Amino acid sequence: MTDTAPRPTLEAVAARAGVSRATVSRVVNGGDGVREPLVERVRRAVEELGYVPNQAARSLVTRRHDAVAVVIAEPEARVFADPFFALQLRGISKELTAHDNQLVLLLTEGRDDHARVARYLAGGHVDGALVFSLHLDDPLPGLIQGAGVPTVFGGRPGWSDGRAADTGPTVYVDSDNRGGARDAVRHLASLGRTRIAHITGPLDQTSAADRLDGYRDVMGDTDPGLVAESDFTPAGGERAMRDLLDRRPELDALFAANDLTAAGALRVLRERGLRVPEDVAVVGFDDMLPVAEQTDPPLTTVRQDIEEMGRLMARLLLRRLDRPGTGQGATDEDGPGGGPPTVPAGPDDADAGAGAGVVLPTTLVRRASA
Predict the structure, then answer these.
(1) Rg of the Cα atoms in the chain
(2) pLDDT at 112 over 90
(3) What is the Cβ-side half-sphere exposure of residue 169, based on CA atoms within 13 angstroms?
(4) Cβ neighbour number for residue 136 with a 10 Å cutoff
(5) How confident is the model at residue 159 (pLDDT cuts 50, 70, 90)?
(6) In whole angstroms, how far apart are CA 314 and each of 174, 240, 357?
(7) Contact status, residue 205 vs residue 135, Cβ threshold 8 Å
(8) How many CB atoms neighbour CB 211 within 10 A?
(9) Is the pLDDT of residue 332 over 50?
(10) Which of 131, 302, 325, 346 counts the highest number of beta carbons within 10 A?
């Protein structure tokens, strides 16, 4: 058993730096009004002594916990099986870490979890919340806003006017799902394919609904038998592909709503003895490299920068926390093709006070499947 050395105190830092305890407190807690030479002396003393601020005491001064909740409205099994969530969490974590904030991960399996998450957020444990993978009937937005926690959403909100009931405009980060879907279907059409099927994601999520709209923008009033609803999973892609082939065996192309769905569809096409792309050309959506580059054949897909989406969500929230009087916002102008509003998506252009959602562009990445 060894003795533990006492932790350095504010007084010890003040003595080493030759300043008052109040000056050290202001520097450590990010306060203003301290001349730069004194700031440097305090920082040197903090480093030399290995001083670590007491977070509870610091929170009393700054009213900040330096912690952000990440709320994913999906069950645990889905979150840890889908690389989409890992990429988005990586982007969020990088941005929070760069600003010395902690990530608190909260998952929801059912209604009991919704109440638990709402209680935790209302308890003042975190400064704000990042919320994604919402479904249209999800009570989480109302519960979170009822808790009074600043929030940024991943994905275009499902409420019709971009606002939650009785609250201000909503801050969100999304990709151009509708435009990306149009690019995918146009590419298939450019290959001479005329019987292009679509496997959707869950249509109670705006990303899936927007991708279906993009497919319809190009295909017009297409045969409804060429559309099958799924759930963004490989197993769902397999089921939907079997249904499509049973209904429309003459189909010659497929646009899948995400890469995991496409991977499942490719397995079924191979089981049925259909060649890709000779018999059926396939395009996915996401460009998640662990999936898209390892399918057989490698997958042509629409790339969205998932990690960047997470990073921008975190940056928007941190800016809002630094300027608590700043409103959230969404413009009244539609983006191209009647989609969500689009604003500059560069890291220095995303401004929580600008009154707009951030919609990132997408890019078609061609590989061997189409």
Answers:
(1) 25
(2) no
(3) 16
(4) 13
(5) low
(6) 13, 35, 14
(7) yes
(8) 29
(9) no
(10) 302
Alpha helices in the chain (DSSP H): 10-17, 21-28, 36-49, 55-62, 76-81, 83-98, 111-122, 140-146, 177-190, 206-219, 234-247, 259-271, 289-292, 306-322
Distance in angstroms (rounded) separating the CA atoms of residues 57 and 35: 24
**Does pLDDT of 260 surpass 60?**
yes
Q: CA distances (Å), 96 to each of 25, 100, 311, 312, in order?
A: 23, 6, 8, 10
Written as one letter, the residue type at 26 is: R
Distance, in Å, from the CA atom of 310 to the CA atom of 93, rounded to the nearest integer, reads 8
Alpha carbon distance 327, 332 (integer Å)? 15
CA angle 276, 282, 286 (to 5 degrees): 135
Between CA 51 and CA 27 the distance in angstroms is 13
Choice among 21-25, 72-76, 205-209, 250-254 with the minimum mean pLDDT: 21-25
pTM of the predicted protein model: 0.76
Cα separation of 303 and 157, whole Å? 21
- Condensed to tens digits (0 to 9), the pLDDT of residues 291-311 reads 999 999 999 999 999 999 999
User: 320 and 150 in contact (C-beta within 8 Å)?
Assistant: yes
DSSP code at position 3: P
